[in-house]
Model the fold of this input.
Amino acid sequence: MTAGPRTIVLDCDPGHDDAIALLLAAGHPGAEIAAITTVGGNQTLEKVTGNALAVATVAGLDGVVVAAGCDRPLVRDAVLTDPRTHGASGLDGPELPEPTVPLDPRHGVDVIVETVMSHPARTVTLVPTGPLTNIATALRREPAIAARVAEVVLMGGGYSKGNVTAAAEFNIYTDPEAAHVVFSAPWRVTMVGIDLTHQALATPDVVERFRTLGTTAGRFVVDLLDFFGPAYRAKQGFPAPPVHDACAVARVLDPGVMAVRQAHVDVELRGEHTTGMTVTDFAGRDGRALEHLVATELDVPRFWDLVVGGIAELR
Ligand code: BDR
Ligand code: CA
Done:
């Protein structure tokens, strides 16, 4: 029996790397996007939702549900990404098309719940690439989704470092309470954090591969990276920009593209200097179950073949 495409819900806050993740999921035959939901994160909910509709339009996703979810973290004030990283729009660089994909009037959280509950058990994979507010709220609204999803493969966290603070990565730092709910629920969570995503650097040869595609989607990615690259270099000293969120989609499409280790992940909620840290225990201290998977090493050539190949399928 051959496995068909994986049904996914992409919960995102585009964002340059969210946009590349979306294009990858849209183009690659190994994924079928059941819904795209947005969450306030890199920019306001209004902006990231507009961006998601524009990117879905570039991807030709005319029949796919796009719905706006939560506009702020569960209990804290919003922390928007420094505009030097994603620009004032959240997606500076490319010229965004007027969306032809309509906004679904339902709340994104309802869409997540309805999508999971209306598909056969364990067939929908949730792929959050922003703060985890929508996913945690969906779990609260309908706890039965925990037993029904195939798995949660999220971009966020890290086991050795942070990127907003020394300890915390942006998606988890923005809404640590939501992340705590998601990591504590009885479903399989794979954490694709910054230890992994910092290996996914869009170097000049990669940009050239997208340029060579000669397609609308290929040019769009080049325009994204032309903004994202200098932004990451100026702000964080990276030689090339890491396409964090595309790594989570890649893991779903081709699990062998990265090595994972079993671990127990706790989200720090009360640290003086460590709030939002994903405290990762690989050793099962005090008899803790190692119920999470944590991505550690990326097969870089295989990753870029997957991403460029997937996006090459788009017009
Ligand atoms: C994460 O933060 C956002 O800026 C990116 O889109 C990514 O999801 C990386 O820390
Ligand atoms: Ca993101």
Q: What stands out?
A: The chain has a mean pLDDT of 97.
